[in-house]
Amino acid sequence: MRAVLRRLVPRSLLLRNLLGVVAGLVVVVLVLETTSPFRNSQFATMSYYAIAAAGLTVLTGLNGQISLGHGALMAVGAYTTALLLQGGSVPFPLAMLAAAVVTALVGVVVGAAAARLHGPYLAGATLALAVGVPGLAIYFDGLLGGEQGLSVRSPRPPGWFADAHYFLTAGELGGAKYLAYIGWITLLVVVLLLANLMAGRYGRVWRAVRDDEVAAELAGMRLGGLRILAFVVSAACAGLAGAVLAMVVRLAAPSGFTIVLSLSLLTAVVVGGLGSIPGALLGSALLVFLPPAVTNLGTGAGLTGVQAAQLAPFVYGVVLVVVMLLAPGGVMGLLRRLWRRGINQGGST
Amino acid sequence: MTLPEASETRFPSARSDPAPLFAADGVTVRFGGLTALDDVSLAARPHEVHGVIGPNGAGKTTFFNVCCGFVRPDTGTLWWRGEPLPGLRPAQLAGMGIARTLQGLGLFAGLTVAENVMVGADRFRRTGFASALFALPRAGADERRLRERADAAMREVGVEDVAARHPGSLPYPVRKRVALARALAADPELLLLDEPASGLGAGEMAELGELVRGLTARMTVILVDHHMDLVMSVCDRITVLDFGRVVAEGAPAQVRDDPAVIDAYLGEEARHG
Ligand SMILES: Nc1ncnc2c1ncn2[C@@H]1O[C@H](COP(=O)(O)OP(=O)(O)OP(=O)(O)O)[C@@H](O)[C@H]1O
Ligand SMILES: [Mg+2]
């Protein structure tokens, strides 16, 4: 049975990953077309969390570097996008690309500093980034709009896209849905590229450097270079996430990039399972869908609106603690364990 | 135990005294007030096994750390193929063909055995980041090439059956072999083995001895170990360290009867009470 399945899977890594992405795209279309505009906008939110979390799980899970500053890197991407879209002459894909490149360049600098730091020092340095960068927006308020931030012209669907959409679904293409498509297509591209990296040489040597520096160096690994590279890849993802965020919320403002954002990303990655891209997606979904669900449950159980709203962070904290205690490998680690147990019990079948 | 005079005749090239592949000349290393290595010189000739022995704390591992670029000597020079080696970084030395196993295991716990060994073969990759990012066919070909090298190394030490396992799930002697396979996958010209026999049973040790002897067809080996049977039967030459100083050097038979060596080891017994 397994042998048959294996023969159906293409041997080339790229084809295999592309197949996964195409399947993902089908699911995305189905989900976005069958859900309400409100859900569409929730999925758009999830997409930028997931893009950033996927990049972060590579950095923290595969390379063992913690970052409390990814929210700040998202800010770099968001402001870059906001500035470029201001004039109305730059097409948004170009602005997104620029956001990724600019944030990657910031990642080189931060990564070079981070490569020399370990554990609490690295956490402290990236925390400083998270706290400091939003301050820059206030300092340069002429360019970056101070507390109010910059409003962002969200892209409107071009005619051909709306036509194609109508042709395929016979449905209306709302603004929220279009942004959700942009976010999810970006996410699928990011996941494809990260999956390529993880399955190949870089995934292997990043994990080697994480597990044993001395042995990795003896095997010829350049520790600094590999660490910086992991940071840059992760920063580019954060930049793209920031770009999507800016377009979805139509605003790049300091209040959107507080330390809470950085911590949320980290919890998403930990809850989902460090180093796992499906885990990062799962964690991001939880981040977006759990709080409203809990609030609904709360009001349903007779709590006042304020009480119910306070319940959400509490439940989120409880989920985090429970996962850390019961499933240190995160949700994906737990699923893998159950899957393996299932196979063992299944015996020879 | 058979006397290893046979090794002289098995390798006739050794008699003609060829230029050393690798040499240390007057290496001194101080850690604060402690002199870990004191004017140590050693020449490893091509296709020989050069033993380095000495009591605990004699400076053997420190000597390897100097050879691999982890510790900069305060004075002294390293030579590679008759040229002085400038102070290179560990990764650069690895790229030149110097591989080493660690006194501990130093395996990557989160990698499978095959992946561990592929990391050892990494210096043979030909493609870079962009190929990996877009999973281009040449990146795939590169991976297959590394995997083939890893397979060969795993077969050589007999761990191909556990290629898909993680090191943590394997018995200690098997992990030792994996560590050796990782070093061999680099196809080194100089292989530094730091206590490869620790934790092995008698049978496994004999196998290891044969394996190391067989490696000399392709490479030069410097071997540190506390098991005298192994060292005496495998090495062509031996350097004896005590308190960071070379106290004896020569063929195994010579070294074994050297009073200074007996002193060093008797001294150790006295130190341990
Ligand atoms: N990085 C370091 N800093 C300070 N002292 C060190 C360092 N590395 C080694 N030493 C000291 O140098 C001396 C030589 O140590 P080394 O590890 O080289 O001995 P060894 O011959 O390998 O011993 P063993 O047989 O126990 O492995 C010891 O006294 C050790 O404590
Ligand atoms: Mg030692």
TrEMBL record, chain A:
Keyword annotations from UniProtKB, A to Z: Cell membrane, Membrane, Transmembrane, Transmembrane helix
CC per GO annotation: plasma membrane
Bilayer topology term: Multi-pass membrane protein
GO molecular-function term, one example from the UniProt record: branched-chain amino acid transmembrane transporter activity
InterPro entries xref list: ABC_transp_permease, LivM-like
Compartments where located: Cell membrane
Regions crossing the membrane: 12-31, 43-62, 69-88, 94-114, 121-140, 178-197, 228-249, 255-274, 281-302, 314-335
Cell membrane in keyword set: yes
Keyword Cell membrane attributed: yes
Domain of life: Bacteria
Name of the protein this chain belongs to: Branched-chain amino acid ABC transporter permease
Species in which this protein is naturally found: Prauserella flavalba
Source taxonomy: Bacteria, Bacillati, Actinomycetota, Actinomycetes, Pseudonocardiales
TrEMBL record, chain B:
One MF annotation (Gene Ontology) recorded for this entry: ATP hydrolysis activity
Superkingdom of origin: Bacteria
Keywords: ATP-binding, Nucleotide-binding, Transport
SUPFAM superfamilies in UniProt: P-loop containing nucleoside triphosphate hydrolases
Stretches assigned to the ABC transporter domain: 22-268
InterPro entries: AAA+_ATPase (IPR003593), ABC_AA/LPS_Transport (IPR051120), ABC_transporter-like_ATP-bd (IPR003439), BCA_ABC_TP_C (IPR032823), P-loop_NTPase (IPR027417)
GO cellular component: plasma membrane
Protein name per Swiss-Prot or TrEMBL: ABC transporter ATP-binding protein
Taxonomic lineage of the native organism: Bacteria, Bacillati, Actinomycetota, Actinomycetes, Pseudonocardiales
